[in-house]
Write a structure and sequence with these properties.
The structure holds three protein chains of three kinds. By secondary structure, chain A is of the alpha/beta class. In chain A, strands 1, 2, 3, 4, 5, 16, 17 and 18 form an eight-stranded mixed beta sheet that branches. An eight-stranded parallel beta sheet of chain A has the order 6-7-8-9-10-13-14-15. The model of chain A has no long low-confidence stretch (mean pLDDT about 95). Helix content of chain B is about 40%, strand content about 15%. In chain B, the strands form two sheets. A five-stranded parallel beta sheet of chain B has the order 7-6-5-8-9. A four-stranded parallel beta sheet of chain B has the order 2-1-3-4. In chain B, helix 5 crosses helix 12. The radius of gyration of chain B is 20 Å and the shape is globular. The C terminus of chain B is likely disordered. By secondary structure, chain C is α/β, with parallel strands linked by helices. Chain C has one domain: 3-Layer(aba) Sandwich (Rossmann fold), CATH 3.40.50.2020. In chain C, the strands form two sheets. Chain C has a five-stranded parallel beta sheet with strand order 3-2-4-5-6, with helices on both faces. In chain C, helix 1 crosses helix 2. The chains are: A alpha/beta, B alpha/beta, C alpha/beta. The interface between B and C is large, with 37 and 38 residues.
């Protein structure tokens, strides 16, 4: 029983102070002043927000292959610490998630971890080589919820076309990382004044926009479900808005860091501000914020990308792309968008939970009776300072270290069980 | 060390105009030392300097080495051009090793932008950037400034950087130094070789070399790396010379006498006409001479010791 | 700023008298004044050398060669005092080999400046003899160096300063002893 919280469930158009009764892993009842069954554990949520657990369509858990930087267990634990009850693991592991066994491995490792639910995303092409389609049917039957060659774009227009068409059979989205690689080759950050000053090769906006345009045209051609990962440019946001208006089946996500930061963070050659797509300029940040607010961009996804500290302890050109985000996403979005009046709390829940669950057709994303009791209880006013050493993730590569944020998770429940409480310490910490 | 300059010399962007003038003024008396029969003063006696060159560079390394030796420092040259090891690993490990060997100063040339700062942040020794990727090459910028200043005031001078500004650390250091000292700065080259946002730095852009020559008092002609052609930035060397080459014929139409600088090594017949390089406009050899003096000045100013002691030791008479 | 007491050691007339006496001493100790070279140590030694040279010319009729020397780059205490921002020029217009050379400085204190000057001189040639002439010897030597010609000897404590003013640079001729009064002492 979660008592007295502000229950926000956009799917049910609910935003009111209410009690939430959970039985047998599912939501049993939602409403004001519910009676507490004998022996039920009661969580007092007065002053807090009670929402369906967050769903992250885009994480890199590095297992198998790089268990030194993250595992499915540590990633799933970091997820619930950030309020995410479901995360979708990208297939660019070693080996690539392009067959039934690899998908099954992720499912079983996630069950053993017992934290967030982990849904595998399988590769579009075998080995992510951009040549032959992976066996979507087999992958979906093993548990894959989407396909993507993330880490790189779907290599050719033809491959993208066939992937969109073939995915329709299974009702899954094709997720694309939009980057025209001949334009981005050798680039380390956004192409602009900062890159010019730092002497770093830039990645122009056009590298993203060109592939977004290609993919939208192909989604329009095929009628398949296109999901665009980590949108970073004003141009991409505009094209998605136009495509949606035409009725193209396109959805999109944006990361907290692209909502919050600009390429100025790369000053001093800060490798924790190196990610792909790169941090853009103020105008792009404003555009993706507006696109998120008006629904052009459906959801917030972290693109959680752990790297070993040694790897980021390098010259900017040589450091790997990517930052972690599961444990800072809520705080960043509340501080940057909710506290500034650009996003309401119900909209935040819609972008972090309702819409991503719908995009990938996942259970959860709502608290209607009968739904799985995946719940996040958070305090939107709680102030805290990001301390990477306290992360549950194995990695520390965040651009938000030391930043004062508001909005923090109090409890996270998966299937009715409390899997995270504020103040939990990392084992061995 | 001079409190004004700080521990390291990483670039001209971070220096104040007064710091730049200080280095140039300090370089003046060092020019005289190179004219002596015994071209050596003991000021850096007992200092250990490592010249760490991850990229091949004969001229800059020799210039630094002369500067160091004329100041009586002990120097060690480490050249490790692009090994198969990850560059980042090498640099972190190199930094730790240098720190352990108690080196006083490190002069670093590296192919990655920010590498000099990366090293400077991790060791206590003074670090001088001898060129990092496409970022900065401050001593080259300083020697260019000194060479211009030898001939005319920098303030108000119209200086155009010609060529591959996009990939040029020399261009960036020149632009910062010149702007800070009050020059007017322009860039001229194929649009594919001019970086985005250069106008926002206060740099005027000329599309045609003829327009640049008509405007400028000074041309700093950059070397066109042959790789740029392979990477498709320019169609061919012949075409580049035809459109952007600094030729005697083009200079003949200039409304005033131009000063021609080139950081070397030159591609004669590509970015610059031999007759210009060897002609009366050219101050290219003065640049080489000034390079040693400027580097002596930078080494001297950085090597001095700790400012708090300097403060305490102030007092009258024959100290 | 702790309070200071200033004491006039030499006024303009006393300074002129002292320089004349020094010139006489130099001539007396130099058998061959026609080949004499006076080298002033930057800054005020340069001006004093010029005045001594003029006086020696008056006394002996010989034209005296002059030079200037900045010993900054020969100091042994760069670590301690930090680099002097601007190094002055060293100008030695004549060949020093086989000639009598006098180093001229304003104040002789620890002796380190003179030691550095001797080092620098060695890089320029091999004089027949090197002499040292100083306007003020304030004692408290740290290296075994003595002047051959001294204008005035003054007893000082370590914290005191001896300040030499010359018309050419300071608009007046004077030597002052600045004594720092220790608070509570």
């Amino acid at each position: 029983m979660i008592r007295g919280g502000r229950v926000i469930d956009p799917a049910a158009e609910r935003d009111a102070i209410a009690d939430l009764l959970i039985m047998d892993g599912s939501v049993a009842a939602v409403g004001p002043s519910l009676g507490t069954p004998d022996g039920a554990e009661v969580l007092d949520a007065s002053g807090l927000v009670v929402a369906p657990g967050f769903v992250d369509l885009h994480v890199h858990l590095r297992e198998p292959g790089r268990e030194d930087v993250e595992t499915i267990a540590t990633g799933a634990r970091a997820a619930v610490a950030g309020g995410f009850t479901s995360v979708c693991a990208m297939p660019n592991t070693d080996p690539v998630t392009d067959n039934q066994a690899a998908v099954g491995f992720i499912v079983s490792q996630a069950q053993r971890a017992g934290a967030a639910r982990v849904y595998p995303i399988a590769a579009v092409s075998l080995g992510q080589q951009g040549e032959r389609l992976a066996e979507f049917g087999e992958l979906v039957s093993a548990g894959a919820v989407a396909v993507s060659d993330d880490g790189r774009p779907v290599a050719t227009a033809h491959l993208m076309r066939t992937a969109l068409e073939y995915a329709m059979t299974f009702g899954i989205p094709v997720i694309d990382h939009c980057e025209e690689s001949t334009l981005s080759a050798g680039g380390a950050m956004h192409e602009g004044l900062t890159a010019t000053r730092l002497g770093l090769k830039g990645i122009p906006r056009a590298a993203e926009d060109v592939i977004v345009a290609r993919d939208i045209a192909l989604a329009e051609l095929t009628g398949g479900h296109l999901h665009l990962a980590h949108i970073s440019t004003a141009g991409a946001a505009r094209m998605i808005r136009e495509a949606k208006a035409r009725g193209v089946q396109v959805t999109a996500e944006v990361t907290p860091h692209h909502l919050a930061l600009t390429d100025a963070c790369c000053e001093e050659y800060n490798t924790n501000a190196k990610m792909n797509p790169p941090l853009r300029e103020r105008g792009d940040v404003d555009a993706v914020r507006a696109a998120l607010a008006d629904g052009t961009i459906d959801c917030i996804a972290t693109d959680h990308a752990p790297h070993h500290y040694d790897a980021k302890e390098a010259e900017f050109d040589d450091a790997p792309f990517g930052v972690i985000g599961l444990e800072t996403a809520l705080g960043v979005v509340v501080s940057e968008l909710v506290d500034t009046g650009q996003l309401s709390l119900p909209e935040l829940v819609r972008r972090l939970s309702t819409r991503p669950a719908e995009v990938a057709h996942l259970p959860g994303g709502t608290l209607v009776p009968g739904a799985p009791a995946d719940v996040v209880v958070f305090d939107p006013a709680a102030a805290w300072v990001v301390d990477p050493s306290a992360f549950f993730s194995k990695s520390r590569n965040t651009p938000f270290a030391g930043r004062a944020l508001r909005g923090r998770v109090r409890w996270t429940l998966v299937g009715g069980a409390v899997v995270h409480r504020a103040g939990d310490a990392r084992r061995g910490a | 060390m001079s409190p004004a300059l700080g521990k390291d010399l990483l670039g001209l962007e971070s220096l104040a105009a007064d710091d730049i003038r200080l280095i140039l003024d300090t370089a003046e008396p060092f020019k005289e030392i190179s004219e002596r029969a015994i071209k050596k003063v003991p000021v850096l006696r007992g200092k250990t300097i490592v010249n760490l060159f991850f990229e091949p560079s004969t001229r800059t390394r020799i210039s630094f080495e002369f500067a160091e030796k004329r100041l009586s420092a002990d120097t060690v040259n480490v050249a490790s051009p692009g090994s198969s090891v990850l560059k980042g690993e090498t640099l972190v490990d190199t930094a730790r090793n240098l720190e352990a060997m108690r080196i006083d100063m490190v002069v670093i040339r590296h192919g990655s932008s920010g590498a000099a700062k990366f090293l400077a942040d991790r060791i206590q020794s003074n670090v001088i950037n001898a060129g990092d990727g496409k970022h900065e090459h401050p001593t080259q910028g300083l020697l260019d400034l000194l060479t211009i200043r030898d001939r005319r005031p920098i303030e108000g001078a119209k200086v155009c950087v010609v060529g591959d500004v996009l990939h040029s650390r020399v261009a960036r250091s020149n632009i910062w130094g010149l702007l800070k000292l009050g020059a007017r700065v322009a860039a001229c080259g194929p649009r594919s070789l001019l970086p985005l946002g250069i106008g926002e730095l206060g740099v005027r852009v000329f599309r045609r070399i003829e327009e640049a020559i008509e405007w400028a008092d000074v041309l700093n002609v950059l070397r066109l790396q042959l790789e740029r052609m392979q990477a498709g930035y320019v169609p061919s060397l012949r075409e580049y010379y035809r459109v952007f080459g600094v030729t005697l014929e083009r200079l003949a139409r200039a409304p005033r006498e131009l000063l021609i600088l080139h950081p070397g090594p030159m591609n004669r017949g590509v970015e610059i006409d031999s007759r210009v390089a060897d002609g009366p406009h050219s101050v290219i050899l003065d640049q080489v001479t000034n390079g040693v003096a400027v580097r002596m000045a930078a080494l001297y100013l950085l090597a001095g010791g700790r400012p708090e002691l300097a403060e305490a030791a102030k007092g009258g008479g024959d100290r | 700023m702790p309070p200071e007491e200033r004491q006039l050691l030499l006024d303009d007339r006393a300074l002129a008298r002292t320089l004349l006496r020094m010139a006489q001493d130099i001539v007396r100790q130099t058998p061959d004044p026609a080949h004499l070279v006076l080298i002033g140590v930057q800054r005020r030694g340069v001006e004093l050398a010029a005045r001594l040279a003029a006086a020696i010319t008056d006394l002996s009729g010989a034209e005296v060669a002059r030079g200037a020397m900045d010993i900054t780059l020969y100091r042994d205490d760069l670590e301690v005092v930090g680099p002097k921002p601007i190094v002055g020029p060293t100008r030695l217009p004549v060949d020093l080999d086989g000639r009598p050379v006098w180093i001229v400085d304003d104040v002789l204190f620890t002796g380190r400046t003179v030691r550095a000057a001797l080092d620098e001189l060695a890089d320029f040639g091999r004089p027949a003899r090197v002499g040292l002439a100083v306007l003020i010897d304030r004692g408290r030597r740290e290296v075994p160096i003595q002047a051959d010609v001294v204008g005035e000897r003054v007893t000082t404590s370590a914290d005191d300063r001896v300040e030499v003013f010359v018309r050419e640079l300071d608009g007046r001729d004077a030597v002052e002893l600045v004594h720092v009064v220790k608070v509570g002492a």
